Amino acid sequence: MSAHIIAVTNQKGGVGKTTTTINLAQALALRGASVLVVDTDPQGNTTQGFGVPLEAICKSVSDLILNRELPADAATYAGDGISLIPATHRLAEVEREMVGMTNSELRLARTLKAVRGKYSVILLDVPPTFGPLMNSALNAADSLIIPVDSGFYAMNGIKDMLAEIEEIKVGTNPDLRILGILLTLADQTRMAGDVFDELVASFGDKVFATKIRRNVKLKEAPALGKTIFHHAPTSTGAQDYLALADEIRTQLELPQNEVAKFEQPQIAPAIPRVAGGVQ
């Protein structure tokens, strides 16, 4: 087994990158995949969305970037079906330091290469800004999921994102590809339909058939440190992310397992755990 590394990225904020990372990870775990999530955003929203308090973190992705000798396991928080390499606000300072480091944008890729054999999928949550951290994620990834919201400005910035991807392919990661473009915050409005049609017209089969419908439960879950499957397992949000997981499993030819049973695990105060995963 060698993990397929997927970066969830878009330079436009507010399109559901973190929501997708958290809930896709859980959906894949429920389908039987062993998943590692890497938070590369200094806001640490993915970390908090899994119920890991930032103040309780001893080692994070920052330490892996700064110390090339530190193994990924030293900064990995184990969960049931999902593990997490967290981020803290310290990562913003580390990103500034990366400008002066030799080959800093390749350090994360080398670190994750050493643990690919432990997982079937590695998901990276990427900050919405071009810079060393986004470059690190794009160099580490095999493929990309690009969430696009269903609003009026949905297509704005995609050209810039695609240009950045091409630069990475030409320079340091020639095998990088788009796994799929994902319509998020979808509703029954004509605009949402028009955006989806425009995406299909522009990108064809690179657009996921699954749409993530606008759902208040998806907004509530991360504030509680839960995935949608632990907060509202019968909601449309849970249904949509399971459907997306199935599309991705088909593309990557992952094993076809049945949905597992799960419960919300307790988080030990002294040893933080990922508040998700399969029991």
Give structural notes:
The protein has helices at residues 17-30, 45-49, 61-66, 90-98, 107-113, 132-140, 158-171, 190-203, 216-223, 228-231, 236-252, and strands at 4-8, 35-39, 82-85, 121-125, 143-149, 177-186, 207-213. The chain has one domain (4-252): Rossmann fold (3-Layer(aba) Sandwich), CATH 3.40.50.300. The longest helix has 17 residues, at 236-252. It is globular, with a radius of gyration of 17 Å. It is α/β, with parallel strands linked by helices and 279 residues long. It has eleven helices and seven strands.
Order of SSEs: EHEHHEHHEHEHEHEHHH
Helical residues, percent: 25-40%
Note the total helix count: 11
What does the radius of gyration come to? 17 Å
What's the CATH architecture? Answer: 3-Layer(aba) Sandwich
Residue fraction in strands: 15-25%
What is the CATH H-level superfamily?
P-loop containing nucleotide triphosphate hydrolases
CATH class: Alpha Beta
**Biggest sheet layout:** 7 strands, parallel
Mean pLDDT: 88
CATH third-level topology: Rossmann fold
Low-confidence stretches: 258-273
Look at the helices and sheets and give the structural class. alpha/beta
Q: What overall geometry do the principal axes of the alpha carbons give?
A: globular
From the N-terminal CA to the C-terminal CA, the straight-line distance is: 22 Å
Task: Using brief descriptors, characterize the structure shown.
38% helix; 279 residues; Rossmann fold; 7-stranded parallel sheet; alpha/beta; 7 strands
